[in-house]
Amino acid sequence: MAKILVIDDEAAILNLMAKSCRQQGHEVTAVQTGREGIEALDRFKPEMMIVDLLIGDMTGLEIISYGAEHHPDTQVIMVTGNGSIDTAVEAMRLGAFDYLTKPFELADLHRTVDLGLQKRDEDDTIEATDFQSSAISLPSAGMIGESAKVKEILSVTDKIANNDSPILLEGEFGSGKQMVARSLHNASERRDAPFKVLQCSALPEELLESELFGSPSSRGETIFSRAAGGTVLLEEIQVLPVRLQSKLDSYLEEVNTRRMMGDLPKHMDVRFIASSAKPLQEAIEANTFRKDLYYKISVIPITVPPLRSRPEDIEPLAQNFLTSYSERTGQSIPEIDKYAKRLLEGYSWPGNVGELQNAIERACAFAEDNRIRPVDLPPKVTQKVEITDEDEKATHHLPIGGLLSEYIRKQEKLFIRETLKYNGGSREKTASMLGVSIATLYRKMGLKLEKKKMTTK
């Protein structure tokens, strides 16, 4: 086992990472400041250092830079809560082996530590000038939910768990495509191997090409070689430059041919999953996506529905985020009171699962007595909006995130109903007061206008 130095100014996360590494049999030193980290590096001389990006008295990049100069044999994993790709690139250039974003699963931490130590054994000295990976280990768990749509997706993932055919996940931003990919990985025989994610929109074309296909500066390493035996999720593939689409098409063709021939090398042995926030058929029609590549990556297509179409999944997702928050902070799991729960279930979640996670994180930060109340939720979820009307401020309940047409329809019905009450139920008086025809009034009320029979003498 190895000597590992962990540096993080958040005590709960520091203790969690240190405890987890000790359970793996490693000798761990844990400190909360950059100054202590530098001293521990010099004194402890660890084989690996896990360092947070923002520590307080120093930045993680400063510590990585110091380590690269004075302790080049120490393998480095950077941890951050802001998920900055630019920071990841800089960290890799300074010599970091890999990059984890908070919150992350302990299984991701274990795998990254093991791979980093293996890499160290293979390479006595880390060159601090190479960009090694922009892949971010996924923090989310598998697909969570109780709706019929989620159960259908889980049924599909169980059936294709060990099928190595490429998979295409389509669905809105934040709908849970990463969770589906994680479910596929966790259900497969590849579950103990790396799970890596590459966001096509996060890197300039040159770095994206290097990460996918290698370059002299990367010593031929790619996201595929770093995920050998595991799974690669290529996110937002719809924005992949056409030139790289052609290269990816050729690469996948080679993988398929060599797999069929039984001649697939280890560095190419990965399960390939792509995701798109927009239907790729539309991109094909707009000539921004290659049809031949589409057919290669969509052997098994899966559509992930938005959260608003499966409200019964809101509660189990919220509970999962609460549990994750509790594990990271060391606090007990907060309870959501019935009024806050009702608001969560009534909101349309235009930002989908990602927006729900952010709302729960915010609520946990503001909650008192370990109980989440409506006041702890974001204003757009509680639908309270401050508006000015004739120089007077008033709080109104508005369904922020909903459809304008639906809101207008409901307000019309409410206004008509109250006007009917005012006129003692007279529809004729109500139509006259509202300035509409009796036919229009009936239509907006959802009623059929009775036609009088005409007789002729």
Written description of the protein model:
- The chain folds into 4 domains: 120 residues, Response regulator (Rossmann fold, 3-Layer(aba) Sandwich), CATH 3.40.50.2300; 158 residues, Rossmann fold (3-Layer(aba) Sandwich); 74 residues, Helicase, Ruva Protein, domain 3; 43 residues.
- It has a 5-stranded parallel sheet with strand order 2-1-3-4-5, with helices on both faces.
- With 457 residues, it is an alpha/beta fold.
- The N and C termini lie far apart (107 Å).
Annotation, overall tally of beta strands: 14
Mean pLDDT: 82
The helix-and-strand class reads: alpha/beta
The rounded distance between the terminal residues' Cα atoms is 107 Å
Number of discrete helical segments:
19
Amount of beta strand: 5-15%
Tell me the number of structural domains.
4
Query: Going by CATH, what is the homologous superfamily of the largest domain?
Result: P-loop containing nucleotide triphosphate hydrolases
Note the topology.
Blueprint lengths: L2 E5 L3 H13 L3 E5 L2 H11 L3 E5 L7 H11 L4 E6 L4 H10 L3 E4 L4 H17 L25 H12 L7 E4 L6 H11 L7 E5 L5 H9 L9 H4 L4 E5 L6 H19 L10 E6 L3 H6 L5 H7 L2 E4 L10 H16 L5 E2 L1 H9 L5 H15 L4 E2 L6 H4 L1 E6 L2 E6 L6 H19 L4 H8 L3 H8 L12
Parallel strand pairs: 1-2, 1-3, 3-4, 4-5, 6-9, 6-10, 7-8, 8-9, 11-12
Antiparallel strand pairs: 13-14
Helix pairs in contact: 2-3, 3-4, 6-7, 10-12, 13-15, 17-18
